[in-house]
Amino acid sequence: MSVQTSPLDHPWREPGKGRGLAEIVYRFYLLKLIVHKDLRVRYRGSILGMLWSYVKPAVQFVVFYFAVGEFLRMNDRVDNYAIYLFSGIVIVNFFTESFGNATRSIAGNYALVKKIYLPRELFPVSALWVAAIHFFPQLVVLIIGALLFGWAPTFLQLLAAVGALIILAIFCLGLGLLFGAINVLFRDAENLVDLFVMVATWASPVLYTWQQVFSVSEKNGGWLFPIYMLNPITPVVEVFHWAFWEPTIGATGESLPPNMAMWMGIATVVSLATLALGEYVFRRLDGRFAQEL
């Protein structure tokens, strides 16, 4: 004989007192629904739809290629500059979309946040998922382009690229949780993030090479380059150059900065620390989201 239970028999949990990011596992179906909603809202009334994930990086690539490659003569300095440029662009685009969308994810879903309680971490994670959906078509284009230039990577290079992408995803999620929570209280966070993503393109070796930064640093006492490499995006971009661009020029590791293993280790630690800080702040402010929105 089964015993019926009342909803009051189940313990209630305060907002922000749940399992945190572990809710992704327990609420995975709900996460997929949110991702589907985000994609449907984004492309509602759009003629091109998902093709916009190709159009934006294509235009960005053409502008940078001619402005920097042709006019500033980077084509003469870097062999197969097109592959070098695009392998950096796809990574920076993933960062900017993940970070920007995750920051706006709570405020942008205010109707759901105010009506019902659900694990709010799902919103920044869904923003990261949507960015990944837009990233992989660009990655396919990069691979096709690299193959046309004779791309033949080693297994270690491919493994390093996957690891670098995971590290960047952790960093993006940490920043998204942190600024997504702060953005609920102070909408200035959105403008601050816009500045960050604008600087990200120029603060990473996408349009230029790390050797140029190293040369300037050496002329000024050598202090600039270590600071430059502390940015987790920088070693991630360099790993993507190593995995996708270097095999097209027949190099054997010359493209990597000195002590690359150390910089990747630091990037991993910074990313995990950012995730821990973002989750802590997010859960501390979670209970205020509904009333602030």
UniProtKB/TrEMBL annotation:
Any single biological process term in GO: lipopolysaccharide transport
Keywords from the named record: Antibiotic resistance, Cell inner membrane, Cell membrane, Membrane, Transmembrane, Transmembrane helix, Transport
GO molecular function terms listed in the Swiss-Prot or TrEMBL record: ABC-type transporter activity
Signal peptide start-end: none
Top-level taxon in the UniProt lineage: Bacteria
Membrane protein topology class: Multi-pass membrane protein
Domain ABC transmembrane type-2: 48-285
InterPro entries documented for this protein: ABC2_TM, ABC2_TM_bact-type, ABC_2_transport
Subcellular location: Cell inner membrane; Cell membrane
Transmembrane segments annotated in the record for this chain: 47-69, 81-102, 122-149, 155-180, 192-210, 260-282
A GO cellular component annotation in the UniProt record: ATP-binding cassette (ABC) transporter complex
Pfam family for this entry, one: ABC2_membrane
Similarity-based family: Belongs to the ABC-2 integral membrane protein family.
Protein name as annotated: Transport permease protein
Organism: Bowdeniella nasicola
Lineage: Bacteria, Bacillati, Actinomycetota, Actinomycetes, Actinomycetales
